[in-house]
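Pasting as-is:
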Amino acid sequence: MSYRNVMHHATHKVAMESIRSVVDSNQEAPAAKMIGDSDRHLPLVTLGDNIRVPVPLMDKYCTDPPNVLDLIIKEINGMYKIGCRGGTINRFYARNQFEKCD
């Protein structure tokens, strides 16, 4: 590789890093706006709150209830671990995947 090619490669790498940093910063503002919108539209939930989780159509029979009542057991980075009388559900739920019961 010649000196000219090495310099061109180094310049290109610096330009790409600069473009990536601009793209990252431009993605942060819309993401923050989406999080703010969901915080305004969805009620706040805390540990121990009663919630209603819809049961997917493929997992229920026609006479089964359309949703299940559960409790919030744990929260990690906006994702919620849910439990009921039968135990805990082996996945985390996002805030928009369940409804808070009053």
